Amino acid sequence: MARAAASAEIERLIQLLARLPGLGPRSARRAALHLVKKKEQLLGPLALALTEARDNIVTCEICGNIDTVSPCTLCRDQTRDRSLICVVEEVGDLWALDRASVLSGQYHVLGGTLSPLDGVGPEDLSIAKLIGRAREPQVKEVLLALNATVEGQSTAHYLMDQLAGCNVIVSRLAHGVPIGGELDYLDEGTLAAAVKARKVM
């Protein structure tokens, strides 16, 4: 007896959902079935939100954050401390730090970490733009808030060398961030302790 298969449209939805981080084929299938079951309450609004996001979200030309305007809302905020740039790997890390309200400076999203094995070199990250920003006269400190992974630490050391001629203090997150930990998964208290206890490299 042949096994009943989902329609091509549902299979496509499942395959697309399975590409999302944290969703494997089984989870994607459950999510797809739930969306179809709640078509009016979830599927329609989700489709509309995705279309609006596709059409309106842009990457900030200054810091690399995502927003509906460029420069982004954070870069436009005149109350933020222009003397401090906090460097993070990804937008999720920026959001985690900003959500914790422990930093009033500017941000800079690298877009990843150096990883020669994966073919990611300095030219693939937003490093040149960071160096340019660090040379601006109002910038006094660059805080390297990179994940405590091998790649994160290697990238931090590379950035220290690159920032050596920029006449800025280079600091990094101190205790509070566990080795192997990622910023987006840490609570606000841990992030606050790490920012407050940062030290010059």
Features:
Helicase, Ruva Protein, domain 3, two-stranded antiparallel sheet, Dna Topoisomerase Vi A Subunit, Chain: A, domain 2, 8 helices, 201 residues, alpha/beta
What does this molecule look like?
With 201 residues, the protein is α/β, with parallel strands linked by helices. It folds into two domains: 8-56, Helicase, Ruva Protein, domain 3 (Orthogonal Bundle), CATH 1.10.8.420; 66-200, 3-Layer(aba) Sandwich (Dna Topoisomerase Vi A Subunit, Chain: A, domain 2). It has eight helices and seven strands. The chain has a five-stranded mixed beta sheet. A two-stranded antiparallel sheet has the order 1-2.
TL;DR?
This protein is an alpha/beta fold. 43% of the residues lie in helices and 13% in strands.
- Count up the helices: 8
CATH topology of the largest domain: Dna Topoisomerase Vi A Subunit, Chain: A, domain 2
Order of helices and strands: HHHEEHEHEHEHEHE
CATH class of the largest domain: Alpha Beta
